[in-house]
Q: What sequence folds into this?
């Protein structure tokens, strides 16, 4: 079974940077889309970014465009979320997810990580 293990969260000052990692292990018999989501206190989970298997297609929510970059290294079975120019409103639990059923546009995510806390102080 596919398992996603996240790391890299923590406490950072506004304007700083963090890089989240998501290692994918288990039975991966096909290419898959990877995505990042987040859930802030008192808010519903929201989409952050996604990347195609080849890395050639990426998608971002408007609030992070120009600040966050999603990337992947399939040789290492790892997906990253580079977060620059962090803002307090970026504070949330960040989850990575794998989509085996559709394209980057269908957002059919089958597996989810445990989440990693990102806290941005003012």
A:
């Amino acid at each position: 079974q596919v398992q996603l293990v996240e790391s890299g969260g923590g406490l950072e000052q506004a304007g700083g940077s963090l890089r989240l990692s998501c290692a994918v292990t288990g039975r991966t018999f096909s290419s898959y889309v990877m995505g990042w989501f987040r859930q802030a206190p008192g808010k519903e989970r929201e989409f952050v970014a996604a990347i195609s298997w080849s890395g050639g297609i990426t998608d971002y929510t408007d609030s992070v465009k120009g600040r966050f970059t999603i990337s992947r290294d399939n040789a290492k079975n790892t997906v990253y979320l580079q977060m620059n120019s962090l803002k307090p409103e970026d504070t949330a639990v960040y989850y990575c997810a794998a989509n085996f059923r559709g394209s980057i546009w269908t957002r059919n995510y089958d597996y989810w990580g445990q989440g990693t806390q990102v806290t941005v102080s003012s």
Notes: The two ends are 40 Å apart (CA to CA). The mean pLDDT is 95. The CA atoms of residues 37 and 48 lie 5 Å apart. DSSP finds no helices and eleven strands in the chain.
